[in-house]
Amino acid sequence: MEIMNTIPKEYEGNDAYMNIIRRVSVRRYSDKSVSSEQVSAILHAAMSAPTGVNKQPWEFIVVDDPGLLSRLADALPYAKMTAHAPVAIVVCGNKDRFLDGVDDILWEQDLSAASENILLAAHAIGLGGVWTCIYPHEERMAPVRSILNLPDNIVPFNLIPIGHPLADHAPMDKWHPDRVHQNRLI
Fold it and tell me: Which of 98, 127, 139, 178 is the most exposed place for a label (fewest CB within 10 A)?
């Protein structure tokens, strides 16, 4: 089904809503560079994400060195497109800002929210990106730690290659009303 057929008509003109609905994962990029101003805008959006107890447990590593991008692509099985991206953002958690006790896993939610903001901001300014998983896979985390010389208190969470999309991508319609439940699942 065409995605526009499932969007409530009263929201079709809402730029923020449509940015969310039309965001796609982009894995192929043109040769056009991404400016430092664009990266700063994306990171500003990332740091505007909600965060438990305002801990802001994130660190962002902007990688634009072609050699490092290639090494990361070689090391990560689902991030091969990174070698052809002009820039990638490695979203990391800083253990020094994790909560203690049972809430110490909230950093994962915080970094997920920041990562989604990265993808939405990139899309909003005409770029594209894709979330590639690093954490909790040690076989992915170890090479990223080594390549980027990360200290022990920094946990590589994901890698998001970003660039100008090589082609237009039609968003998938992921709306499934049968997965919406009122008051109870059953």
Answer: 178
Q: Residue 176, exposed/middle/buried by CB under 10 A (0-12, 13-18, 19+)?
A: exposed
CA distances from 14 to 18, 21, 64, 97, 121 (A): 6, 11, 33, 36, 15
pTM above 0.85, yes or no: yes
d(CA 144, CA 77): 12
Options 3.40.50.1820, 3.40.50.620, 3.30.1050.10, 3.40.109.10; CATH for 26-166 is: 3.40.109.10
Q: What six digits make up the tokens of 146?
A: 């080594």
pLDDT in tens, 45-93: 999 999 999 999 999 999 999 999 999 999 999 999 999 999 999 999 9
Given a cut of 60, is residue 39 above it in pLDDT? yes
How far from 115 is each of 41, 66, 75, 141, CA to CA, in Å?
14, 22, 21, 17
Q: Say how many residues make up the chain.
A: 186
Domain ranges across the chain: 26-166
Residue scoring higher pLDDT (102 or 58): 58
**Confidence category of residue 169, pLDDT binned at 50, 70, 90:** confident
